[in-house]
Amino acid sequence: MGQLDGKTAVVTGANSGIGLASARRFAAEGAYVFITGRRQEALDAAVAEIGANVTGVRVDVSDLADLDRLYAVIAEQGRRIDVLFANAGGGEFSPLEQVTERHFDQTFGSNVKGTLFTVQKALPLLNDDASVIFTGSTAATSGAEAFGVYAASKAAIRSLARTWANELRGRGIRVNTLVPGPIDTPGIAGLASDQESAAQLKDFLASTVPLGRMGRPEEAAAAALFLASDQSSFVTGSELFVDGGLNQI
Fold first, then answer.
1. Where does the pLDDT of residue 239 fall: very low under 50, low under 70, confident under 90, or very high at 90 and above?
2. Are 46 and 35 in contact (CB under 8 A)?
3. Does the pTM of the predicted model rise above 0.90?
4. Is 71 a catalytic residue?
């Protein structure tokens, strides 16, 4: 018996990293999983990697028409949603004096607007007692230099989770935020300009973590499974840190 047997899960931003690892774990635990990503080739590869009980839908979460199409596909298959992992998002380094309107709009478009409408448009398909999970970031409270816009977007996610946990409590829907620290994903490497810089960035990030290393996507996925499953049935409005102690010690 898997922890998600018979359930339907949606994981946005599941082309790689935490999203892919979580979708793979959800499927292994018995869920039928709908995954999204912006790049069709990467999405197809993710579907092939998960292997069974999965449907991929190309979606840019900042595009409301794409979200409508995602939920239409789910409804057409006669399914309702038990787990919604609004994971899609990202960010780039930019110190205050270099922030552009494009940088701001892209970051808040994917991280905040995308998350808001991912949840709002899912409401008609969400089962009572469903679990909604957001991906936050330790950057939301750390004050890391050149990460201000990204950090602000993740602080907004934390605020929305708390509000919606309150608003949706009448339906028994739990809303929690998974807060990863430095996780070794393609998104981390993408913050650097080349492979050498990426290696240096990873070494630096590992040096800041009390456990002395970066986390693995599978470790974040294990925490996401806890929030998705009945093991966390009395947990809502919370933050679950998967950060090797970075923001704790």
1. very high
2. yes
3. yes
4. no
